[in-house]
Write a structure and sequence with these properties.
CATH class: Alpha Beta
Largest sheet: 4 strands, antiparallel
Structural class: alpha+beta
CATH architecture: 3-Layer(aba) Sandwich
Helix content: 25-40%
Distance between the termini: 31 Å
Number of domains: 1
Number of helices: 8
Bound molecules: flavin mononucleotide
Number of strands: 4
Strand content: 5-15%
Order of helices and strands: HHEHHEHEHEHH
Shape: globular
């Protein structure tokens, strides 16, 4: 597992996490692990504890996996077909009485982040995808707003990819400097 070149030493779970596209098509996810990563999403914080996230999980070959796969743009289909599972997150923008939940996407992002870290801890990789047909996915979620489909699997060697997918897999991982994103209060 390669670590990101962090400016400060941080936890392995964060420094080692990345979003590979080269996935092992023979790898499967156990019921226990899938339940564990869904549980991690469940325990995310949310504004007023409204928990606006709604999730759909599918294992490769089952009907949920196929329904989510069919929504992906062709580039994402080309590599994520080897995922062991997909988990999609949609969010409810309003409460049952119609009151808006202005933070619903933020809350759902926190659930996705927790799911991702738990999956990494269990030896899987997670790759978030916004590249899907949101209108096509909407009916799957009973009115909630589709936000992301996550491919979950085991990482495989980059060489099974080709073209832009391979190039992106072996490119150095980069981030803006702390001094660029912390616009005030960065310790000396
Ligand atoms: C909301 C969101 C949507 C993304 N959508 C896609 C996508 O549709 N296809 C894709 O290949 N990668 C997608 N990514 C992955 C990002 O490109 C990736 O997280 C970013 O380049 C940083 O790489 P890292 O996660 O390995 O650090 C998405 C990531 C996020 C957070």
């Amino acid at each position: 597992m390669t670590r990101a070149e962090t400016a400060v030493d941080i936890h392995d779970l964060i420094a080692e996490r990345r979003s590979p596209r080269s996935l092992d098509e023979t790898a499967e996810i156990s019921k226990e692990d899938l339940l564990g990563i869904l549980e991690a999403a469940r325990w995310a914080p949310s504004a007023n504890n409204l928990q606006p996230w709604r999730l759909i999980a599918g294992k490769r070959g089952d009907s949920n996996f196929t329904a989510l796969f069919d929504c992906l743009v062709p580039f994402n289909q080309s590599w994520s077909k080897r995922a062991a599972a997909f988990v999609a997150i949609a969010g409810t923008p309003t409460q049952p009485d119609g009151t808006a939940i202005p933070t619903f996407m933020y809350d759902c992002g926190l659930a996705a982040a927790q799911l991702t870290i738990e999956a990494h801890h269990r030896g899987y990789v997670v790759h978030q995808m916004a590249g899907f047909d949101h209108e096509k996915a909407a009916p799957l979620f009973n009115g909630a707003t589709p936000i992301v489909i996550m491919a979950i699997g085991k990482q495989a060697p980059a060489e099974q990819l080709e073209g832009p997918a391979f190039d992106r897999e072996v490119a150095p991982r980069v981030r803006k400097a702390l001094s660029e994103i912390v616009i005030a209060g960065l310790p000396d």
